[in-house]
Design goal:
This protein folds into 2 domains: 137 residues, Rossmann fold, CATH 3.40.50.720; 188 residues, Dihydrodipicolinate Reductase, domain 2. The chain contains 13 helices and 14 strands. The strands form 2 sheets. Strands 13-12-11-7-10-9-8-14 form an 8-stranded mixed beta sheet. It has a 6-stranded parallel beta sheet with strand order 3-2-1-4-5-6, with helices on both faces. Helix 2 links the parallel strand 2 and strand 3. The radius of gyration is 20 Å and the shape is globular. It binds nicotinamide-adenine-dinucleotide (NAD). The site of nicotinamide-adenine-dinucleotide has 24 residues, from loops.
């Protein structure tokens, strides 16, 4: 790539930041399109260690970093409660943002980012790495080809296991710092992937429960979702399931497409079953799709860098990410009001717009 590299920084140097750093440094070697230059964390020991490990300049706040460095792009890898103020600071300083999931704690916060994006002309891309593996691209190609017919039914399961010690980390399991339980923190991966196939949702009926963990939020949620295109889906989000799995299943008129994995899929994790009489057309359309891209952060980062160099909005855009956050809000709204909720009800006058839990959880 002959263009100037995007000067990039990482804010929040905990668990996930290592994947961001190594992926960005790999892209720098591959194309020269990015250059990782700095990192910031409010924990001085953590940022010092991270900066030394990745040969970066370390800072103890995003503000110190922005005052000292000219950066084009900042990856926000802090806990969800700090995503909004950090993102606003970066946008106002003229940088683009790559934001870890869940993008914000609430729809109200999210709309502040959209307004800032519009005011500054900078972009916010939300991490959703499972939209970028070749399998999901093949599935979308199959759907667009018409060979699979209409989407009818989907299953979207994130049944994971997190023991009580996982919640010793101070920001986890709390509405005010994580925004919710497995619906927001874990299932959001599969929910977002499902939505990138099925599009706009219209209504949801849900249950949220505290089954086993001592947390403020739910540890299990279940939902039935209806889509604008007429499809319906069952969504299960859990952190109490010893046999862990991420499972997505799409039943179209003429084909079932499934993926089973845990934290990332490859091509071998997908299966396609054609309805009798449709084998040839379905398999031909499936085989035309791309292959060999795992659903990892680096796959999304490559596309973000390309989009920013081309001057267009990088994926996953705020329009895409908002739909996912809105479904999480819908799940909580339905669970805690104990009635079906329409997407259109979740405007600024809804209690679930300002707080995911609305007027408070009802268990
Ligand atoms: N996409 C994925 O697969 C994936 C996986 C794990 C975590 N995540 C997300 O990544 C984010 C971080 O998760 P983690 O597990 O790395 O958390 P972590 O607790 O391990 O690390 C967060 C770091 O941010 C720092 N920090 C907190 N507030 C800060 C602030 N205001 N300014 C600067 N630094 C600050 C902390 O000191 C800590 O070092 C969360 O949003 C989480 O949901 C995404």
């Amino acid at each position: 790539m002959s263009v100037k590299p995007l000067r990039t920084a990482i804010v929040g140097t905990g668990n996930i930041a290592g994947i961001h750093a190594s992926s960005l440094q790999q892209i720098a070697r591959e194309t020269g399109g990015v250059e990782l230059v700095a990192a910031a964390d409010t924990d001085p020991a953590r940022v010092a260690e991270f900066a030394a490990a990745h040969s970066l300049t370390g800072y103890e706040s995003v503000h110190a970093l922005l005052a000292a460095e000219q950066v084009d792009l900042v990856h926000v890898c802090t806990p969800p409660g700090s995503h909004t103020p950090i993102t606003l600071a970066v946008l106002e300083a003229g940088g683009h943002v790559v934001l870890e999931k869940p993008a914000t704690l609430t729809l109200a916060e999210f709309d502040r980012l959209v307004a800032a994006e519009q005011a500054t002309g900078r972009h916010v891309a939300t991490i959703s790495q499972h939209r970028f593996g070749s399998g999901i691209r093949r599935l979308r190609g199959l759907l667009e080809s018409g060979a699979a017919g209409r989407p009818l039914l989907a299953l979207c399961d994130t049944v994971w296991y997190r023991d009580q010690a996982y919640y010793d980390v101070v920001w986890r399991g709390r509405w005010d710092t994580e925004g919710g339980g497995p619906t927001m923190g874990h299932g959001i991966h599969q929910i977002d992937t499902m939505l990138c196939v099925l599009g706009a949702w219209t209504s949801v009926s849900a249950v949220a429960r505290q089954q086993a963990r001592a947390v403020d939020t739910e540890d299990v949620s279940l939902a039935h979702v209806t889509f604008e295109n007429g499809a319906v889906a069952s969504v299960v989000n859990s952190v109490v399931s010893p046999r862990e799995e991420s499972y997505l299943r799409f039943d179209f008129e003429f084909a079932t497409v499934e993926v089973r994995h845990l934290y990332g899929y490859g091509d071998d994790d997908w299966t396609v079953t054609a309805a009798p009489g449709h084998e040839e057309r379905v398999m031909a359309a499936w085989d035309r799709g791309p292959t060999r891209v795992r659903s990892e952060h680096i796959a999304q980062f490559r596309e973000i860098a390309t989009a920013l160099h081309e001057g267009v909005a990088p994926p996953v855009t705020t329009t895409d990410a908002r739909r996912t956050l809105q479904l999480a809000a819908g799940i909580y709204a339905s669970a805690f009001t104990r009635r079906p909720v329409e997407a259109a009800e979740l405007g600024a006058d809804s209690p679930h717009y300002e707080l995911m839990q609305g007027n408070g959880p009802v268990w």
